[in-house]
Amino acid sequence: MLVTLLSRAIRIAAAFLYGSTGETIIEKSGHLNLGIPGIMCFGAVGGCIGADMAQKGGAGAFGIIVATIFFAMLFAGAMGLLYGFFTISLRCNQNVTGLTITTFGAGVLGFWRKNLLNIVVSDEGTITFKAASDFIKAPMFGAVGDDWFSKIFLSHGTLVYLAIIIAIVVAIVLKKTRTGLSLNAIGENPAAADAAGIKVIKYKYISCVLGAAIAGIGGAFCLLDLQSGSTEYPIEAIGWLAVALVIFSLWRPGIGILGSFVFGLLYVMPNYINGIGTEYKKILEIIPYAVTALVLIVISFFNKRETQPPTALGVPYFREDR
Amino acid sequence: MKAIELVGITKTFGSIHANQDINLDVEKGEILSLLGENGSGKTTLMNMLSGIYFPDAGHIFVDGKEVLIKSPIDAFKNRIGMVHQHFKLVDIFTAADNIILGEKMPPFSIREKSQELRLQAANEISALGENLDEEAKKKAISKINNKRNLKICALPFVKFGKAVAFNYLPRTRAKRLQAIADQYGFDIDLKKKVYEMSVSEKQTVEIIKVLYRGADKLILDEPTAVLTPQEIQKLFAVMRKMRESGKSIIIITHKLNEVMEISDRVAVLRKGKYIGTVKTSETSEKELTEMMVGEKVDLNIARELPIDPQPRLVVEGLTVRNKDGLHAIEDVSFTVNGGEIFGVAGIAGNGQKELLEGIAGLQPVESGSIIFYNPKENKPVTFFHNDLKQIKKKAEMGMFHYPDGTPVDLKGKSAKEITRLVNEEQILYYENEVIDLNKRTPREIQELGIKLSFVPEDRLHMGLVGNMSIIDNMMLRSYRKGKSIFVNRKKPKALADKIIDDLGVVTPSDMTPVRRLSGGNVQKVLVGREISSSPKVLMSAYPVRGLDVNSSYLIYNLLNEQKARNTAVVYVGEDLDVLIALCDRIMVLCGGKVSAIVDARNVTKEQLGLLMTKMPETVERYDYNVAPQQEETKEEEKNND
After folding, report:
1. Which of A11, A102, A293, B546 has the maximal Cβ count within 10 Å?
2. Closest chain B residue to A321 measured between Cα atoms?
C-alpha cells in the first residue's frame, strides 16, 4: 500500500509542480498572480480541446501529447497575457485582477464540464477523451516492472516527468543565467534593473505569459491524467495549493520539486488511512495549508533576506514615478 | 574634443522651468563640479544625460556627435554612466551580480560575419596558384566555396551558442571583476551581498558598475553626502585615478571645500538657469557662493518685530537617526520663541525632515530633550471635564496647580470628588506647563492639550489623505472628539467651508477628493486645517514649494498672522530670499548640525550660503534675550527705510 501511496503522491505532485513553477516565474518578476487556479482551469479546457482535436485527427500518442500541451499553454498563456495587460500596462491591483481570473476560470471550466464536454465529444458518448487520456496516462517508460522502484518512479505518464524537467530547467535558468539574474533583479528592485538597461516591461510580460502557460499544462494534466472514472479533481483547489507551494518552496523551483511531493503526499494521505470517516478525511485536507503557514512562521524566525519573497512583489512599476 | 557638450537644454515640469537654456561642456580627462542650491536643476540636467528624462529643447553632443538619449540604454551606448544619489542596487545580490546585471552580449552580426567569410573565400580563390590546371582549379574553388557556404550556414548556430554561453553565469565572475576593481584601487569584496554593505561600499559598487559597462563619462550625484571624511578622501583618490586614465567626471555637490579640492572647473546653476563656468584655480569660495545664491531679491514681505518673545519650544542636544541608521541630525539645540518666525535653512537632506518629525513625535529620538512651554494662561480647565483618565494623567505629570502654586495631588480622591473639583472650577489651573515632548507619539501630544501643528513637506502623503474629501481631511485631527460612535460631519464641514472661503481654495465643492486639487490649493487646505486649531507652535516644512507667487504670499501672510497671535512659527525653507525676508531668526543646518543661528535682519545670502555648505569654526547663536536692545531699534529703522 505504501508503494501505491507514494506513486499516487508523485503523480499528483506534478499538478502542484506545474502550478508552482509557473507562479514562481511570475512572482520573480514582481507580480503576485492569484489567478493561477483560474489559469489552470483554462489550461484544462485548452488541453481538452487540443486532445480532442488530435484524437479526432487520428494523431498518435506523441501528437496527442504535443497538441494537449500546446493548447493548454495557448489558453493559459492568453489568460497570462490578459493578467499582464491589466497589471503591467494598466497597473491594476494585482490581487483583484488575479482573483477575477480565478473566478472566471473556475466558472468557465464548470460550464465546460457540465455543458460542452458532452457535445464536443458526442461521438464518444459521455466517456471523456478516453483514448487521448489513455495515451497521456500511459507510462512513459513502457510496461511497469513489478519491483517497488518501477512502481513508484517509472509508472507515470509523460507529463509527470515533463513537470520535473521544466522545474529543473527553470531552477537552472533562475540561478545560473543572466536571464534569471535580470528576472530576479526586476522582482527585487525594478528601478535598479531599469537603470541597468534591462527591458523591465518586456521581461514582465514574458514571465507573466510563460508562467501562466506552464501552470496551464498543470490544469490539463489534472483533467487528462489524474482524473479517472467519475472522480473530478478540483483544479481550483489544486491551484491554490500550488500558490501555497511557491511560499513553501521559498521561491525556488528546485525546492519546489521536493515540496510538491510533500504536498502530494499530504494531499492523498487521508484516502489511505483506514478506519476514519469521510468527514475526518475532509478535515485532514487542511494539512498542506497548515504546513505552509508553519513554513511562513519558520522562515520569519530565520529572517534571512534570501528566503523572503521578492521585495517588489505586488508593487507596480513605472519609470516616471520616483 | 569635448566629451559632453550641452547646448540650450530646457526642461519643464508643468509650469515650472527645471532647466532653462543650459549650456555646459566637459573635456576629456577633466573633473567638472556642478554647483547649485537645491532646486537649481542640477539633478534634472544630469538625468537628461543618463536617459531618465528627455529634454524639451536643446542639443546634446557626445564626443563631438549629436545624440538623442531617450533611455538608460542610450546613455550606456554613449558611454555615459551615472551614479545616482539613491543607489540603484539589488540588495540580495552580491556586488559582482549587481555589476554584471543587464550587461549586453557583444554584438555579433551574422550579415557582417558572412561578408567577412565571403571576402576571405574570395581572397583564397585569388591566391590559388596559377600553375594549377583547369580541372584542379575548379575543384579547389568549389571546395573553398562549399566550405564558405557551410560556415555561413553555421553562423546562426554559432550566434545561438555564443548567446547561450554568454547567458551562463560562471562561478568565477566575482574574481574576474576584481581585476577591474583593483585597477582603480577600489577596496571592496565583490562576493559580499549588498545588504551587508556600508553606504560607502554600495557607492563603490555603483562606480565599478558604470566603469564595467564601459562608461568613460561619469556623473556622480552628490557622492560625498553619505560618506565620512576618510571615505571621501578615498573616493577622491579614485576619481583622480580615473581622470588620469582619460575619463570625464561630472560631480554634483554642495560642499565648497570639496569643489575646490577635486574639480578642474566649476559650473554653477541657479534656479534652473546656467550662471557660468569658472576654473577652480582662478576662483574662490566666496565668488562661487555669490554665483550660487545670486543677487538679493526684494520680496516685500511685511515683517513686524516679535512682540514679547518668550521661549516656547526648547530643544536641547537632539539627535535623530534616519532610516539608514545614520545620524540625520546630531546634537541640535535651539529655542523657538512665541511670536517669531524661526527659519531653518540648509541644503535639502541635511536633517530638516528628521528634525521636525522628531519634534512632532513621528520619528524616534535617540537622545536630547524637547521641552514645550505652554504659555501662562491661568484659565480654568474646561475642555475635558468628563475625561477622568486625562485629568489623572495630567495630574500625575504635575500640570495642575492651586492658585497659590502648589501642585494638586489627586491621589486618593474619588472620581466624584475630582469631578467636583474640576467642574466647580475651584482649584484646577494649569499654569505655564513645562512638558517634555520627547518619546511621545503625536496622539499623546495632542491629548496633552499641546497645540502643536505640523505642515509636513509631503502634503499628499503625510499631511492629507488624497482620496478623501476636504471635509474628511478636516476630521483627521478631530475625529476622536465626542462620545458617539458615529462621526459628526457638521463641525468639519463648517471648518472646511470656512477655509475654502477664507483662503480662496479653488475647488468644485467641499466633497472633492483632495488629490484632485492643484498643489497650491492642497497646501491651502492643509495650512488652513493646521492653523484652525490656533496652535501654539506651528511647524511648516517647505510650505510654498511648488506654489505660484500669489499662493506663496497668501501662505506668508498666514504665517505672519500666526506670528502676531504669539505663535511660535518654525519655517523650513529653501529659498534664501524668502527666509531672509520672512523670518526673524534663521538657524542654518549643515550636515545635520547647527552651523549658526543668525538674525535674519542682519544676514546676507552669501553668509547663509557659506554656512549651509561649510561648518564654521565657531557657531554663532543669536537670541533676542541676549542681543542688546539698541540693535533691535536700529533694525526697525532699517526696515522702515
Report:
1. A102
2. B52
Q: Which residue of chain B is at minimal alpha-carbon distance from A192?
A: B88
Radius of gyration of chain A (CA): 20
How sure is the predictor about A290, in pLDDT bands with cuts at 50, 70 and 90? Answer: confident
Q: How many CB atoms lie within 10 A of CB B434?
A: 12
pLDDT digits (tens, 9 = 90+) for B115-156: 999 998 888 888 877 777 788 888 888 888 898 899 999 999
**So where are chain A's domains?**
2-316
Pick from A60-64, B73-77, B402-406: least confident: B402-406
The 3-state secondary structure of B108-173, one letter per residue = CCHHHHHHHHHHHHHHHHHCCCCCCCHHHHHHHHHHHHHHHHHHHHHHHHHHHHHHHHHHECCCCH
User: What is the predicted ipTM?
Assistant: 0.85
Which amino acid appears at position B559 of this protein?
L
Closest approach of A254 to chain B, Cα-based (Å): 18
CATH architecture of the domain B2-92+193-293 equals 3-Layer(aba) Sandwich (3.40)
Residue B319, strand partner residues: B367
Assess B104–A contact: CB distance below 8 Å, yes or no.
yes
- Residue of A37, A320, A322, A83 whose CA lies nearest to A207: A83
CATH code that applies to domain A2-316: 1.10.3470
Query: Distance from B92 to chain A by nearest Cα, in Å?
Result: 7
- Which residues in B lie closer than 8 A to residue A198 (C-beta atoms)? 101-102
Map residue B625 onto helix, strand or coil.
coil
Spatial contact of B85 and B222, defined as CB atoms under 8 Å apart? yes
In words, the CATH class of domain B299-375+433-449+535-641 is alpha beta
Q: What is the DSSP string of B270-333?
A: ETTEEEEEEEGGG--HHHHHHHHH-S--------PPPSS--EEEEEEEEEEE-TTSSEEEEEEE
